[in-house]
Amino acid sequence: MEAQGLKRSEVPSRNGVAERELRSLDRRLSQALLRCDTKALSDLIADDYTFTNPLGDVANKSLLMTGIDSALVLYSVDTKNVKVCVYGDTASVSGNATVVGQYNKQAINGQYRYSDVYMKRDGRWQVVATQAVCVERR
To answer: What domains are defined for the chain?
Structure first.
């Protein structure tokens, strides 16, 4: 069977469309963090969000946004090896991030492994949880 001139194997699957959308959101999230763009971050991050940082501390959206607004300075964020897995209206996005910056005037330069959990609510994807692990400090 063909759809709009494409063979069935060439028609993007529903998960393929979602995967591309989530990869785009992952890039937008990284750029918003780099720019400390709290408006974009507020849209991308769910109200019931939790963040587990490399030290094991847990923050909700409000605490995260306060820290981004007042204590975070990023000079670069480079993500690689991003993997997306879609499970209906839930998805995981994980990858490696090279970060150069400061938090509370302390260097946070290094390699991190991150995992984000996204949920699709009211037709849009939002991050509901993030965990970051330090792989190598520089």
So the answer is: 2-86+103-137 (3.10.450.50)
- 101 burial (CB, 10 Å; 0-12 / 13-18 / 19+) is middle
Which residues neighbour 117 within 8 Å (Cβ) at sequence distance 6 or greater?
Answer: 90, 91, 92, 127, 128, 129, 130
The C-alpha atoms of residue 112 and residue 54 are separated, in whole angstroms, by: 8
DSSP string, 22-68: HHHHHHHHHHHHHHT-HHHHHHHEEEEEEEE-TTS-EEEHHHHHHHH
pTM for the full model?
A: 0.85
Mean of all residue pLDDT scores within the chain: 90
